[in-house]
Design goal:
Elements: H1 3-9, E1 14-17, E2 23-26, H2 52-55, E3 62-69, E4 72-76, H3 81-96, E5 104-110, H4 119-137, E6 142-145, H5 146-151, E7 162-164, H6 167-172, H7 174-188
Parallel strand pairs: 4-6, 6-7
Antiparallel strand pairs: 1-2, 3-4, 3-5
């Protein structure tokens, strides 16, 4: 049995390129759904193995926005990147005292091409991104939102990083803003 027949039995449409450059669909008759009778000596019964990869759930797509300003790093996962960037820049400026200065931003997007979409691969890739951002920022003022902390192994996060509530919650809740500003001022602005 050739590859085209195997693929057509799996329900995949097989296309072949003609010499003149036009595509030509190869239509193959699907294999019969009849199974050989039990104990038939003519044909062997082959059970297909279950792939372990297909049993591992994929990780949903997400983005982590890294904002770096002189003296501080903020890692957030906003639903709306534009609003998150604006609010995050103000939050970082307040934590560092660098009002009016621009933030450098980088976005980590998951899934990434060429990397297996599994929980462990995602944790490794995001952990490496976080470690690099912390090392490049060379600061002790690191702020990380709860969603980002949950996706990174604890040993890859700075010990003294300020763990914030979710950025989307923080943008709309006055009480969360107040408690966050109190924690920032207690840690760094006294």
């Amino acid at each position: 049995m050739d590859t085209a027949q195997i693929l057509s039995e799996l329900g995949v449409t097989v296309w072949r390129l003609r010499i003149d450059g036009r595509a030509d669909e190869t239509v193959l008759e699907p294999a019969s759904n009849e199974h050989p009778a039990a104990g038939s000596a003519d044909e062997e019964t082959v059970e297909e193995p279950v792939s372990a990869v297909s049993m591992i759930p994929a990780v949903d797509a997400f983005r982590v926005l890294s904002l770096v300003s002189e003296g501080g790093l903020l890692l957030i996962q906003p639903t709306d990147v534009r609003a998150g960037r604006r609010f995050g820049a103000e939050l970082l400026a307040g934590a560092t005292g660098n009002w009016g200065k621009d933030c450098t931003q980088l976005i980590f997007s998951w899934p990434q091409q060429g990397i297996e979409n599994t929980e462990s691969s995602m944790r490794k890739a995001l952990g490496a991104f976080v470690e690099k951002q912390v090392a490049d920022a060379a600061t002790d003022r690191v702020l990380i939102t709860r969603e980002t902390c949950e996706r990174v192994d604890e040993n890859r996060l700075p010990e003294d990083a300020l763990r914030l509530p979710g950025i989307d919650e923080l943008m709309i809740s006055g009480e969360l803003k107040k408690s966050t500003w109190l924690e920032i001022s207690k840690r760094w602005l006294q």
